[in-house]
Design goal:
Oligomer: single chain
Largest sheet: 8 strands, antiparallel
Structural class: alpha+beta
Shape: elongated
Helix content: 25-40%
Distance between the termini: 39 Å
């Protein structure tokens, strides 16, 4: 793989490869653009999926080689580079199963109407990917692409599942700590809502972010769950970076912990009833706060190139006496108490950055409303249309 962001690659970067770089486990060159024949499409799909199934890497189309080493950059004639990129994206989307969580394409101008098409493939967190046209899985080593055998397929499936299990274990461990009061910012002992937005690639590659550098140079930071951005404070800690509300300004304390793994944890205190100090939440405020936070956290991860897919987890802690407050007939009605200390809802799977958050969160909200004996979240119409403003 070329150690430069794909959108910054220039003609000079390509010429620097001539005679100096050999095809490898993470780098492949092709002279011609995949045309319309079935065999050529399969070779293209095999090349891309092999990178995704192995270690990720770059596929450069329009490079002439001798024994795997670039010797010239003739490029390929493209009258409509964007149209060709769209064609290849559609091939990848329709003929690999499951779909790749991420692939970037860039047409690099070589002059004279010719381009090199650079395709960057991230190591997939949901591998292995199958070429549907011939029902084969491919891997890659320094010698090129090859079909995976049974033992390699088994290892790939186990590896993918282990990443998901590590994420769930991380979330469960955090819920135990939140419930016990082991939080980066002191919170009251009452009920809390917890939101975890976790990029899967971080747990596949065991990557760590330089949070201090991000704090100095970045403008995208996760906001406290429901906090007022103008009154927030932040600090670096052992886990990464925490932003939190000023208790003097806010009646309810909240924070967002940005872990070095890329995981984001937002936690906020629930309101309390005056008559008995029991926690409660109100539907419109609660759901819109969560929808806003999920959108903002996903955008933060996108800005730091954390990758896809992303898991979103919604949970409640210390809520055995929690009530859901609504006003179906124009006056307040409290449903509850909940009767259990923790509610850990199943993960919401996010495979794109442009998702409509209220839509993907609806099953989680419905399940939470079910816990209070209600048929569905009342922030949606009977047809499933979101009533909020997000």
């Amino acid at each position: 793989m070329i150690s430069k962001p794909i959108h910054q690659l220039k003609r000079s970067d390509l010429h620097a490869l001539i005679g100096n770089v050999r095809e490898s486990k993470t780098l492949e060159f092709k002279r011609e653009m995949p045309a319309g024949t079935s065999d050529e499409k399969i070779k293209f799909l095999a090349a891309v999926s092999a990178l995704a199934n192995t270690s990720g890497g770059d596929l450069l189309i329009g490079i002439e080689t001798a024994q795997g080493i670039p010797i010239a950059i003739p490029g390929i004639a493209l009258t409509n580079p964007d149209g060709e990129k769209l064609r290849l994206e559609q091939i990848l989307a329709s003929q690999l199963d499951p779909r790749l969580p991420r692939v970037d394409l860039e047409a690099i101008d070589c002059g004279g109407g010719r381009h090199v098409l650079a395709i960057r493939v991230a190591r997939s967190s949901i591998a292995p990917h199958r070429v549907t046209a011939n029902d084969k899985f491919y891997g890659r080593n320094s010698g090129g692409n090859y079909p995976l055998d049974v033992s390699e397929l088994r290892s790939a499936f186990v590896f993918s599942e282990s990443a998901a299990e590590r994420i769930r274990a991380f979330r469960n461990d955090r819920l135990v700590k939140i419930g016990a009061g082991e939080t980066p910012v002191p919170l009251d002992a009452g009920g809390k809502v917890a939101l975890h937005v976790i990029p899967v690639p971080s747990f596949v590659d065991n990557r760590l972010m330089d949070i201090a550098a991000a704090a100095i140079g970045g403008t995208h930071m996760p906001l406290p769950l429901g906090g007022i951005s103008g009154a927030n404070r932040s600090s670096v800690n052992l886990g990464g970076l925490v932003t939190y509300t000023d208790k003097i300004v806010q009646m309810r304390q909240s924070y967002a912990q940005f872990f070095r793994s890329g995981a984001i944890e937002g936690v906020g205190e629930l309101s309390r009833r005056k008559e008995d100090d029991c926690p409660y939440f109100v539907g419109p405020e609660f759901t819109q706060k969560i929808a806003f936070a999920v959108r903002q956290y996903i955008d933060v991860l996108r800005s730091y190139d954390a990758g896809l897919p992303i898991y979103v987890f919604l949970s409640l802690c210390n809520v055995a006496q929690c009530f859901y407050r609504n006003a179906p007939e124009g006056f307040w009605v409290d449903n509850g108490p909940l009767g259990r200390d923790f509610v850990a809802l199943p993960e919401v799977y996010v495979d794109g950055f442009e998702v409509h958050v209220p839509t993907i969160m609806r099953p989680a909200f419905n399940m939470l409303w079910n816990a209070f004996g209600l048929l569905q979240c009342d922030m949606y119409s009977q047809q499933g249309q979101w009533k909020g403003t997000n």
